[in-house]
Write a structure and sequence with these properties.
Layout lengths: L3 H5 L5 H4 L4 H6 L5 E2 L12 H13 L3 H7 L9 H13 L15 E5 L1 H12 L5 E5 L4 H10 L2 E5 L1 E2 L2 E2 L1 H15 L3 E6 L13 H14 L2 E5 L24 E6 L9 E5 L2 H14 L5 H40 L4 E2 L7 E5 L4 H4 L2 H9 L4 E2 L1 E2 L9 E4 L4 E4 L6 E5 L5 H18 L1
Parallel strand pairs: 1-13, 3-4, 3-7, 4-15, 7-8, 8-9
Antiparallel strand pairs: 2-10, 5-6, 9-10, 11-12, 12-17, 14-17, 15-16
The chain binds pyridoxal-5'-phosphate.
Pyridoxal-5'-phosphate binds next to helix 7.
GO molecular function: pyridoxal phosphate binding; transaminase activity
Cofactor: pyridoxal 5'-phosphate
Keywords: Aminotransferase, Pyridoxal phosphate, Transferase
Length: 428
């Protein structure tokens, strides 16, 4: 029998460079006050059995119909679901490069939106190519860039998200100093993960102008768009009238978690390449879940969403109030939607205080868990430094943390955030 060490040598290089995701590692800890992973705590639980019942009536005793419709499907997704989503993007999201359900072929269905972002990196990024992300950014994206061989350069953010003038400076200086092309700018326009920030319209427009000016694709990740507590701002994709520069990716995972379906709208030539790449990864997304999603988005979503979103808003209000009343001095966001609040220690402590260690040594023994700031950075990369206005080795806000309010019921959430505040006050 070979031992593990000698087998490890046979593995691909990336397996040695990329660590296990911090969130998957943390998920193994079960704590009473679970403020870590972004698990949806409010789901339309009754609707899915109802849809399955409708489906079973429709298919009852018609074996041929079942065999025809629940086969391997098209790699880019089932027509019915793509029609429903194309219509929704046109009417609800004001995206004009798609004119409604007749443009269904422009939609790409994936197995989770994580697959779509991976496909985009797969078809765009050559070794060393630069991808600009917010600092901090969704870890499932930043680490995937490194896995594919790209170079992450993080750009500064404030309480509204990316700051266009510094994004522009990052583009110019990263290309000059690293000698590679900036290929992609990653943006979560609505209620970013991990900061919960929502980009104002003027910033969306300014980022779109940068994409046009520098010939850079924007990957707009709209995972939290249905989870907004205030009126929606049109996505950056709505500015991309000729479907040229914005790769729009969204997910059913926050409002309909059991389905694991993502959907995207890409510039045509990118769509074809992404579809080709998907074909080599999973052949197609399961047809049964696509059918359930089609019915949910066609008939039910808009009657279920308001109540669900209201529940998340109540949870956010509870967590935010507890934070304000118990936390020590620091900077924090007040999200207008989504699942997360970001808190970071003040001034220099944002870079020196180690929340990872605090999580392990202090929070876990007290039955509390958050995700430490360092998790939202790639294993290697660069940063745009606000003080020197230069590109420097990766600068990590390890004195920051993501507080997830999506999972716990209000009472427990209140207790948990207060406990976190008391422990922080003692240790920061
Ligand atoms: C910003 C963001 N994008 C994408 C994803 C992945 O979504 P999916 O479950 O559709 O793969 C997540 C999941 O947490 C996320 O927070």
């Amino acid at each position: 029998m070979r031992n593990i060490e000698s087998t490890r040598e046979l593995l691909a290089d990336w397996t040695k460079k990329i660590p296990e995701s911090e969130i998957r590692r943390l998920l193994k800890n079960k704590t009473k006050y679970y403020l870590a992973g972004g698990l949806p705590g409010n789901l339309p639980t009754k609707v899915f059995p109802k849809i399955l019942e409708e489906l079973s009536e429709y298919y009852e005793e018609d074996e041929k119909r079942v065999i025809n419709e629940f086969q391997y499907g098209m790699t880019a997704g089932a027509k019915g679901l793509r029609e429903v989503l194309a219509e929704r993007l046109h009417t609800k999201d004001k995206i004009s490069c798609i004119s409604g359900k007749q443009d269904w072929e422009k939609m790409l269905i994936t197995t989770g939106s994580q697959q779509a972002t991976y496909l985009v990196l797969d078809i765009l990024v050559n070794p060393g190519d630069i991808v600009i992300t917010p600092s901090p950014a969704y870890l499932g994206f930043v680490t995937a860039v490194v896995k594919i061989g790209g170079t992450v350069v993080t750009a500064p953010t404030d309480e509204l998200g990316l700051i266009p003038e510094f994004v522009e400076d990052t583009i110019v200086k990263a290309e000059k100093e690293l000698g590679k092309k900036v290929k992609l700018l990653y943006v979560v326009s609505d209620s970013d993960n991990p900061k919960g920030t929502t980009l104002p319209y003027e910033r969306r427009k300014a980022l779109y102008d940068l994409a046009e000016k520098y010939n850079i694709f924007i990957l707009e990740d709209e995972a939290y768009k249905e989870m907004q507590f205030t009126e929606r701002i049109p996505p950056i994709k709505s500015l991309d009238k000729d479907n040229e520069w914005v790769i729009y990716v969204s997910s059913t995972s926050k409002e309909a978690a059991p389905l694991r379906i993502g959907y995207s709208l890409l510039p045509e030539h990118l769509h074809l390449e992404a579809e080709k790449s998907k074909g080599y990864i999973d052949l197609c997304t399961p047809t049964l879940t696509q059918r359930v999603a089609e019915i949910y988005y066609a008939k039910y979503i808009d009657s279920y969403l308001p109540e669900i979103v209201q529940k998340y808003k109540t949870q956010k209000d509870v967590a935010f109030k507890a934070l304000q009343e118990t936390f020590p001095e620091g900077d924090y966001t007040n999200p207008t939607g989504g699942f997360f609040i970001w808190w970071q220690a003040p001034g220099e402590k944002a870079y020196s205080f180690d929340i990872g260690k605090f999580n392990q040594d202090v929070l876990l023994p007290n039955d509390v868990l958050v995700v430490p700031g360092a998790a939202f950075y790639p294993p290697v990369g660069h940063s745009y430094d606000l003080e020197t206005r230069t590109i420097i080795p990766l600068k990590i806000i390890k004195g920051g943390m993501r507080i997830g309010f999506s999972f716990l019921k209000p009472e427990l959430l209140d207790e948990g955030v207060r406990k976190l505040g008391e422990l922080l006050t003692k240790h920061v």
